[in-house]
Amino acid sequence: MSQPDYQGGSIVNLMATVVQGLGGASLGYAPLSMLEPVQLQNYRHIVLLVIDGLGHQYLCQAGQGGTLHAHLKDRISSVFPTTTATAITSLLTGLAPQQHGLTGWHTWFKELGCVLNVLPARPRLGGNGLRDAGLDVASLYDHVPVFDRIPVPGCTVAPKHIAHSDFNLALRGRAEIRAYESLEQMFELTARAVRVAEGRSYVYTYWPELDRIAHESGIGSEAASRHLAEIDAAFGRFLEHMAGSDTLVIVTADHGIIDSGKSYEIQLENHPALAETLTLPLCGERRAAYCYVKPDARDAFEDYVGRELAAYTELRSSRNLIAQNYFGLGEPHPGLRDRVGDYTLIMKENYVIKDWLFAERRYPQIGVHGGLSEQELYVPLILAPC
Is 325 helix (H, G, I), strand (E, B) or coil? Predict the structure, then answer.
């Protein structure tokens, strides 16, 4: 299996380029080897457009001949796990998961005594969000946003339904928030943020719809292909509108997606002997599941996975994944080891593993991500000077 390239080829390194190119200090990671900070200094405005779920391989296959593909410079890696909660946090902080510590959609927070859905900042089983419970989400996540690391004004352009979510507010820093309701409005607000800036500026724009469609219908579906064409056409019009604005538009993604399905699903409830070895629900992702194992059941856990699931998953020590730089380089977040469990099940081929809490709403997913296939790990680096 591949792993992220934090030495100069990942979205973390892209953010090092962005921060330093806008006059900020180094965050401890090298700039992107194929885009040096000095190249950004030639532009008055930097726009980073993140298209959720747009894998490099998918763009090359489904987007051939389009405007996005015409401006494709190279591919870069996401982070591990290849999922929105983890990768978007890296894009908004400039840090790898090794430092920011948000390790998947479901993350165990020992300090709260519960498993959180990270993006909505609410317990996995549901109920009130942390802000509604009187908790300071920004203090809990404890990150300095990119917007507060650069000496230029920032703006984040986000969907209206999540623009002022606990997660977004925790990572907005000094940035202005502009909320949109459509693809066209997203590009309009992005252009307006550039046009009204009096000096240098940084705009971060996020589009989630391709990921949503892929989860429901599959990344290989006609619906996903049609939507990519819609994004591409709108992007082309946006570039025409931005011509002469002294802007560098950078487009990338948080992760790619593969298609799974019922024949690739491993349900934990069908493996009661394995479930009996665990102290917590599975955390992380369907494609990369963190397992918290009873101390006296480790042999039983390893034996069961090796005997019953070896064809579907690669069993890794979570501590070894940290040591081997899957989550990043350097000193780890103080909560990282607690948040990745004892073992990680990295799923092979198109397989997923899933458990369900008592009374938890069950929802199928066709398109999935979180693992280390090339389709999931590699995302495009698109550069469009205007």
Answer: coil
Residue 117 near residue 106 (C-beta atoms within 8 A): yes
Burial 273-283 (b: 16+ CB within 10 A, else e): ebeebbeebbb
Counting every residue, how long is the chain?
Answer: 386
Query: Rounded CA gap, 363 and 174, in Å?
Result: 37
Structure-derived torsion over alpha carbons of residues 373, 19, 91, 323, reported in degrees to the nearest 10: 50
Contact residues for 166 (Cβ-Cβ < 8 A; gap 6+): 120, 121, 129, 130, 131, 137
Give the H or E element holding residue 166. Answer: helix 166-170
Structure tokens at 194: 């550039």
What separation in angstroms does the CA of 40 have from each of 35, 144, 157, 383? 8, 22, 20, 11
CATH number of 262-366: 3.30.1360.180
| Upper half-sphere CA count for residue 179 (Cβ side, 13 Å) | 8
* Tens-digit pLDDT profile for residues 247-274: 999 999 999 999 998 899 999 999 999 9
- Nearest to residue 104, comparing CAs of 320, 302, 326? 326
Taking 80 as the threshold, does the pLDDT of residue 214 lie above it?
yes
Classify the C-alpha dihedral 377-209-96-385 as positive or negative: positive
335-371 pLDDT per residue, tens: 999 999 999 999 999 999 999 988 888 888 999 999 9
- Average pLDDT on 186-196 reads 97
Give ranges for CATH 3.40.720.10 in the chain.
11-259+372-385
Domain(s) labelled CATH 3.30.1360.180 in the chain stretch across 262-366
Tell me which architecture the domain covering 11-259+372-385 has in CATH. Answer: 3-Layer(aba) Sandwich (3.40)
Query: Per the omega criterion (within 30 degrees of 0), is the bond before 145 cis?
Result: no
